[in-house]
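Journal club prep — side note

Before the paper discussion, L.F. wants everyone to see what a predicted structure for a comparable chain looks like in token form. Sequence:
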Amino acid sequence: MPKDKNNGREMTPDEKFRSFFSTTAVDIPEEMTRRDENQPEERPQKRFGLFGRGKEKQETDEAAAEQPQEMPTGEVRLGEDAQPEPEADLELMLKPEADPEQELAPWPFLEKEAEDAQPEAPAKKPEEKSAPQTAEPPAAVKPETPRQSAVPAARPAEQHSTAKPPRYPKNAPEVLLPQEEQEQQEMAQLKAMINGLSDQKPEKPAPRAEAAPAAETEPAESKKKPSGAPLPAAVFAAIKETAPELQPEPVPQPEKTEQPVADFFGKAQSEDAPQAPLAPAEEPAAKEDTMSLPLLPLDGEEPQQAPEKASAAPQPELKAEAEDAVSPEEHAETELPEPEATADKLHRMSAELTLRCVLGGILAVVLLHFGLVSDGLLPAMAALDPDAAPAAFYGANLLLLAASLCVGFPVLRDGLNGLRGRPSSETMPALAAVAALVQAVTAMLNANVYRGTTGISLLSGMAALGLFLALLGSRVMLAAVKGGYELVTNGVEFEGAYRAKDKDLLRALARDLEQKDPWVLLSRPMKEADGFVEQSLSERASERRARKVSYILLGVALLSGVLFLLAGAGWNKAAAAMAAVLCMGAPLSSTLIAGVASLRLQRAAAAVGAVVPGWQAIEQLGGIDTLQIDADDLFTADSAQLEDIRIFKGGRIDRAILYAASVLNESHGTLKGLFRQIVEERTDILFPVRDLEQHHGLGFSAWCDNNRILIGTRRYLEQEGVPMPDEEYEMQHSKNGELQILYLAVSGNLHAMFVLKYVGGRNVARSLAVLQKENIRLLVTCQDPSLTAHHITEAYRLPEGMITVLDQEQCNAIKAAPADPEDTCCMIHLKAFASLTGGLQAADQAQNAESSATTVQMVSVLFSIIIAALLTSAGSIWELSVATVLMYQAAWSALSIAVCALKQHN
């Protein structure tokens, strides 16, 4: 029996048959090539040695060398046609923890055979498109695919004459059948077409799923070779750098290169190769290669990090732009936002006025001491004795008065401008200071003569005291403005009260009122407090009256001085007469009254969460006779009580409560809080509600649980065509109208009747009593259709006509009324009835207090003018002493301040 020369064993009949036809060039029928299809594939042992087959194969190799070599197509052959491949051939395997070098036993032999079997690089076909060279790091393990040959495609025919006769690979058949050649050609065309598609649309590099631990790696510079990046050991266990046909070939264009045919099932790339940048946004996305899976890195390999884009590199121009963009933010630390800048400005103004008050008070005390020394009421110092050294005494007095004028410069500036510009309460103290300055200059220039005049006085101390108290009044006023601004900007949501001036709105609201031109106060949300400080420091009514009186007082003072000059009394007596008239007529509490009234107003309003900005707002609030409020301001959720529930035929009490709670939960009113308490705040059990409609004074309609729900009064349900019970039945359960009735209809059928009762609150009753005393009416917008003006009046025992419940048309008119930005905000208050009424009451008290106190002030000025006229006619006005003027001014100032405090206290 024939034996296998390579293995030394006897050959089976099948092997003999196969050996015969594999070494003989004959035509084999097609039927004989498809044998043993149902038999399992055997893996015979190696039948060849180190140097190939036996001697009988050498002749066949020399004959086959003249024929062009066909590239194995990578097809899977069945049965006996399948050729065994050595373990060193291309084989997908994943052995993360094993060393590939140790597992490859025949490595030296395979390396030598691969060098011998390697042909020259095939010529580039003109129709093939070059694929972009992209280095995609392996990210996942590929499934084991059929083994494919590593032999490159056959060269063109014109290269056969000069090329070295190639050697066949070990597993390639010596003679290919025509059918096999045709199948290989078709497979090669299919591969070329697939490679062309992949060249046109390269895939984007897939990111690493997870990072593997570090392993023994060489530097990146040593791994880069001209032939291409090495293949990862996790994919091809037996191929390294000895198979250059599997490596990407370098071409002149670095962006594109020819893709080997062996990369049909995916291209293995080196992890050290840099990743290509992502495709531009305008290019279409690459098709996903569904024939291969991404490879996972081996243990001990570091994941490849994607290089940063070139555009991410910081450019000098971008750096400059970034610095320019950041520079405003650095300067923004000094530029505070509007509220903080205003608060900081108020703080600086307050500190400045405090310092001026301290210095002005000290100078006023010193100058009063000089005046009392001049009158002989206090002993003089040795260095400044008016009798021994009158020039030094009057010179020191002039210097101190000049210093006082510098400290009180704001009073002088605003007071003198008040004669022609905006009125100011500081006009009379400024005139008194100017008159005292004229007297001090005259005394210093004629020191000996002035001192020798018997009975003449020095009123510089009274003028300095007037400046000091004017500064003190401005400081108190600023404290009131600062406190109000801090309250408004504390982050709490406030509402602004404005007087309604739209004629159409007033006409709609006054339809049911006896008065056809009411002053209605409306409240709407307020977002910013723009212009608050300016409005708070706006012109006051007392300042307008003060300017008128200042003209009279100035005229009397000038007349008195002119009369003394005409009478021949001299400049000393004329200057003393003018200073006496102005110092006696200028009230010391000129600015203190407005400051004290504003400060007490701010504290009283802040106690209820309200702020009244300025005198103009006070005057607007003083004329208000109608308030527009909501029923929620009068009744809370605890004020509404459910007295009874009546279920009609076909209804259920649990369904009635759920339907009513679901619909009313989407509204805003007292009924919402009532039914939320009934369901114990369990809003998760309520039905979804859609298409909710509210009709003021009538009720609600909505869709709930696929049913049309109607909740409202008897009149509303009758309009919707729902059958209603007799009115006697309703009057019986409502106790003749004392209680409220609310009906529930489901899908056109009456379902339930809720009997409600409202109880008034004690705090609201106090606020309503204040409004009743001021004769202020209320316009109420109500969400509860069962609540009427009669019920509100009965709940709080108010007079008839004080409450008016607005209907749907009037509510729409209020919502549609335009908001004029020029409207004066009369008051800023919390969304609470107590805050609104408390602010109104505080503003009314402040107006009464300031008006009464300024009236007392004007009376004191008029008395001073009368006294000055009488003394001028008697010729003794210049003899008024400092003590006399001081006591006179102190008495009137104390009286006016007391009146202001008492009015606001009540």
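L.F.'s comment for the group: The two ends are 138 Å apart (CA to CA). Keep this in mind when we get to the figures.
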